[in-house]
Amino acid sequence: MKSLAGTYIKDEEDYIDEAGKKLYAFMLVFPNKRRIYYFETQSEKQRWFETIKELVNYANINEYYDLGEVLGKGKYGVVRHGRHKRT
After folding, report:
1. Where are the alpha helices (DSSP H) in the chain?
2. Is 1 inside a domain boundary?
3. Cα-based distances in Å from 45 to 4, 22, 33, 36
4. pLDDT of residue 56
5. pTM of whole model > 0.70?
6. Which domain holds residue 69?
7. 25 and 34 in contact (C-beta within 8 Å)?
8. Total number of domains in the chain
9. Which positions ≥6 away from 86 have C-beta within 8 Å?
10. pLDDT < 50 regions, the chain
């Protein structure tokens, strides 16, 4: 059993294994490690991806904000101008 607290989910590029079979992947980024999960079908990957996004309360910032110019950069991040889409 693994807690999903503090976990991020990231879509990964499709992968071709040694036998030439195409696999579909996403990555779970835990607070102290990363794991890539592979699936034999796109639909199976998508089901897992959407379910995990829902469980970890995933939200893409681009769904809510239009991001503009870079206002500043620091050691741990970048600050950009953002405009809330609804308001």
Report:
1. 42-55, 61-64
2. no
3. 18, 12, 21, 12
4. 82
5. no
6. 8-84
7. no
8. 1
9. 64
10. none
